[in-house]
Design goal:
The chain has about 230 residues and is α+β, with helices and mostly antiparallel strands. The longest helix has 11 residues, at about 20-30. It is about 20% helix and about 20% strand. It starts with 17 loop residues before the first helix and ends with a strand. Helix 1 packs antiparallel against helix 3 and helix 2 packs across helix 3. Strand 6 and strand 7 form a beta hairpin. The chain contains five helices and ten strands. It has two domains: about 20-85, Orthogonal Bundle (434 Repressor (Amino-terminal Domain)), CATH 1.10.260; about 100-225, Umud Fragment, subunit A (Ribbon). The protein has helices spanning about 20-30, 35-40, 45-55, 60-65, 75, and strands at about 100-105, 110, 125, 135-140, 155-160, 170-175, 180-185, 195, 205-210, 215-225.
């Protein structure tokens, strides 16, 4: 998760411009303009236009706030006193309110190692009361069998940085090479530039990746399995 609220000195207030904010969001949510645009329900040319104009329009702020509830409205607007309701789209007649967290049905994570493209990204939503997941992804591959099986859906919660990882938990790791993989972390050494990733399936050997190659790390907090 991006930490968007920050302690501000009483006499100094630093506010990033819209272009830098968009760069931050794109880096943290998907890595490309196309993926980020799909996440918030718009198009890549629209995102490119916002960046060129160095301005996020009111409707764009509303889209980001609805699709990514963990992103701070105050950070987006640069004005902590501005009322949130001023940036909400007018609801359509008979519109169904959005419930739940995004489910990226066409962006499967790999219980193994799989390079994902940006094409055909679609977003649905999943609502499970009491579960603190920020998004959901389908799983492909069997390297996490029997804990997580191909076809399962995992709910994840984004971490601020690697320091918040705990031994023996399972994480979804997104790298600079656009790899999405679900692995268990057994040992965490802050002085080691590498992170060792483990599979629950004994047929798969552990392997290491450079920590600097990790763009986003999220803890797996929920598992959904079809029993039919």
């Amino acid at each position: 998760m991006i930490i968007l609220h920050q302690k501000i000195d009483k006499d100094i207030k630093f506010v990033m411009d819209a272009r830098e904010k968009l760069k931050t969001l794109i880096r943290e949510y998907g890595g490309t303009q196309k993926v980020f645009a799909s996440m918030i329900g718009t198009t890549q040319p629209t995102i490119a236009n916002w960046m060129a104009q160095n301005q996020i329009p009111e409707g764009g702020i509303a889209k980001i706030c609805r699709a990514l509830p963990e992103v701070s409205f105050d950070w987006l607007t640069g004005n902590e006193d501005m009322p949130r309701r001023g940036y909400q789209d007018e609801p359509a007649v008979n519109a169904t309110p959005l419930v739940g967290q995004p489910f990226y049905s066409c962006m499967p994570a790999s219980a193994g190692q799989l390079i994902m493209g940006d094409d055909n990204v679609t977003t649905e939503r999943i609502h499970i009361p009491g579960v603190r997941a920020t998004s959901f992804f389908p799983i492909m591959g069997n390297s996490m069998d029997p804990t997580i099986q191909s076809g399962d859906i995992v709910g994840i919660r984004r971490l601020e940085n690697l320091a918040y990882m705990r031994p023996n938990d399972i994480y979804l790791i997104f790298t600079r090479d656009s790899e999405r993989m679900v692995k268990r972390i057994k040992n965490i050494n802050s002085n080691d530039p590498y992170l060792t990733l483990y599979s629950d399936n004994p047929s798969y050997e552990p392997f290491k990746i450079l920590k600097e190659q990790i763009v986003v790390v999220s803890k797996v907090v929920c598992l959904i399995r079809n029993l039919e």
